[in-house]
């Protein structure tokens, strides 16, 4: 997200570094916030509603793309959003619903707070039901079994100063 706060940028970088180091040598890779992700119907006449930007994503196996430009990802497994006051409602609502409707590969959604050390996780079950987990406090650890990785809150929120 352009114009993000220091906390937002730090948290996002920490998540990308943590995931990247854990996934090195595995069939999954972490993608930066510059990768577009499908979030709407495919319409060759209009790109409107076709994609969104996430703060980070993970794709496993071979990435699939909308076209030969390879800039709209069709098969992320994990999508991460670092919450901002201006986008939190959209990230929690319509954006999540669009991703879940259009991305069969999408199994994990992580929301990172910028106001407290808190990670929220939505995991898609085989029945297409989403299960919610919230981990709070710097001693916490969010385990992402679908990817075989974990996010320790001390790493995710390192060098972030929260207002008291």
Automatic annotation (TrEMBL):
Pfam families linked to this entry: Uma2
Superkingdom of origin: Bacteria
Organism: Candidatus Methylumidiphilus alinenensis
Cross-referenced PANTHER family: GLR1098 PROTEIN, RESTRICTION ENDONUCLEASE DOMAIN-CONTAINING PROTEIN-RELATED
Domain Putative restriction endonuclease, chain residue ranges per copy: 1-145
Protein name: Putative restriction endonuclease domain-containing protein
InterPro entries found in the cross-reference section: Nuclease_put_TT1808, Restrct_endonuc-II-like, Uma2
């Amino acid at each position: 997200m352009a114009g993000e706060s220091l906390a937002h940028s730090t948290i996002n970088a920490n998540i990308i570094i943590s995931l990247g180091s854990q996934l090195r040598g595995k069939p999954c890779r972490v993608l930066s916030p510059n990768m577009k992700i499908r979030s709407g119907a495919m319409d060759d006449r209009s790109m409107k509603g076709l994609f969104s930007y996430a703060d980070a994503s993970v794709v496993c196996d071979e990435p699939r793309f909308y076209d030969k430009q390879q800039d709209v990802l069709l098969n992320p497994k994990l999508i991460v959003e670092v919450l901002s006051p201006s986008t939190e409602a959209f990230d929690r609502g319509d954006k999540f619903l669009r991703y879940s409707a259009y991305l069969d590969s999408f199994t994990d959604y992580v929301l990172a707070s910028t106001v407290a050390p808190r990670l929220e996780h939505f995991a898609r079950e085989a029945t297409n039901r989403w299960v919610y987990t919230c981990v709070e406090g710097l001693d916490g650890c969010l385990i992402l079994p679908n990817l075989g990785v974990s996010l320790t809150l001390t790493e995710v929120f390192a060098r972030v100063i929260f207002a008291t």
